[in-house]
Structures
1.
Amino acid sequence: MAFGNGALLPAGPLRETRSRLSTVDVVVSNGLSEYEPIVKNAFSMQLVADSFYNLSQPLQKASAADFSGKKIFAIAGIGNPQRFFNQLEQLGLQFESRAFIDHYQYQPEDFAEIDADIVLMTEKDAVKCKCFARDNFWVLPVHAMFKDNLMPTILNKLNK
């Protein structure tokens, strides 16, 4: 079922009723292409990433290859932590991981027992860890990659 159990938050995944879809110009879903046949003007996007930056020194960049041979630990306190871990695997990284609840408020103690050369996290997590960042905290920024046909649809709406 493309809309989960059909219930609104907190009982289900929906923020608004399905009837709201008839009043919007486009619907963009994160990698959930099953909406496309169901919803008029539905487009999927994918979050992509290819390089990391150091949380303590954001101008310092690294690729996944730079972490080769290092002991890596990944954390994620987002709605779907496995999506982040899958991205790291797609980049060829081997790591241990820990998923935290969404919107988790990290504390320095959360990292006390982590014995790793590199600690990887999402940008959302990095915001919450910046005030106690260590030199081995690295962040994977992502950007949205949209299907080619989304931009003409948006431009057409703007020109009306």
2.
Amino acid sequence: MTCFGQNIGKSEKTTQIKVQQIKINSETLYAFTSGFAQSQTIKELYLIHCFITSDVLEKGLIENISQNKSLILLDLSFNLLNGQAGGLIGKLLSSHSKNRDDRIWLCGLRGEVPENDVNLEGICELNLMGNALNYKSVKDLCYFLQFDGWTRSLNLRYNQIDAEGLLEIDKMLDNNENLISLDIRNNPGITPNTDELEKFGESLKVISKRIFDKLIRNIKLFKEKRENNKFQEVQEEQNEEDEGDEEEEQKLVCYITKYIK
């Protein structure tokens, strides 16, 4: 398995890896992901229904994936992740965010623009559907997400998130303006008949509307940023064309001046 992991790191063509319905322990997972730190092509990693616990996640995955700079999508759906997993995954997202922030900062010091889209140099999409994430998981994860500027999509469907967890998500979105896709359906605290929120002086309808409105706000901001980036690209292209025209004009002037002399 270690050889396989190292080959992944050396591969220049492998962009997606999917492992499904295979029980994986921490040693196997660590060996399997050993080449991820060096890989520059892996974009998507699917570990679905692999009986991964929070302990296996911590010992077998976090270290190697944290060092990777090409992974965009991480799918850990239908595993056994519980209360401890939220903080671990939050740290993983934080390390990817730091890598991108450092890259932008260094380019800024040099007066350069990153050659590649920095958005695509770390996890943007995270699927945690069908685990056992609870209030503690969500609280720990939201602590990191409130400072996260890169994660766009998060799937928390079919977990054990209660009403307090829903309130943590709502609070996190007060600060997070980058998350544009969030699935929290089929959780105990988010069912139409739940009365848990009443003890917090809230109603499911009201808090769901708040979360929805904040996601709509983020989507609008995302579109504005994208349009601004497109405008800047057009301006840069136009400036390059103008510079080229000026060079041609200078050559023409020099040629005419030389001819007159």
3.
Amino acid sequence: TMVAVMEGAPEMASLAIRVCGGRSMLRPNKMEQHYRDARCGATMLPWSVEVCLDRLGRYDLYNDK
């Protein structure tokens, strides 16, 4: 789900940077772009992880099944 991606992407990007080494943080490297996107992506999306979980919870609680 989107929540799992939003929570897991920054951690995966950080691990990839550790594996690839410091040169992967240089601007022309694609790894730098992936790391930046993973770190900043959650703040640029219209909903944060907390808002997504709140909406899902409210939907599950208040809608008839």
4.
Amino acid sequence: MKIIRAEHVTDGTIDQLLTLNPDLDQQLLKTCGYVVDNDGLTAGCFALEQVKSDVYWLRQLQLTPEMAGSVIVLIETVINMAKEKGAQALYVHSHQPQVDTLLTALQFDETTVTPGDVQAPEQAGKWWIYHIS
């Protein structure tokens, strides 16, 4: 699994991702997004948005069904990326019970605090925070 800045991939790769999920925010993906590559094949994407100097928000995490088993490794990679950027906290907004279970297993804590002054997503869900040390 290889992580590539979305700004460094072709428009065709972005189009592939939009085929997986037409609701992806293409502008967000291009400004702070990453593409997951698996042996030369586009396997997913995510955005790691900086909301404060030391706070990041993991958004738009998408993986192909074939890569679903790698989601834990991918989230751990994102945590390390945030740490390298100087983050003290990483937020996730989840609207799926399976993701809630996964985040709990990865030692995220449910929180009522949102990251900075961001507008909460329209979908109802839960906020999670990972404290980076």
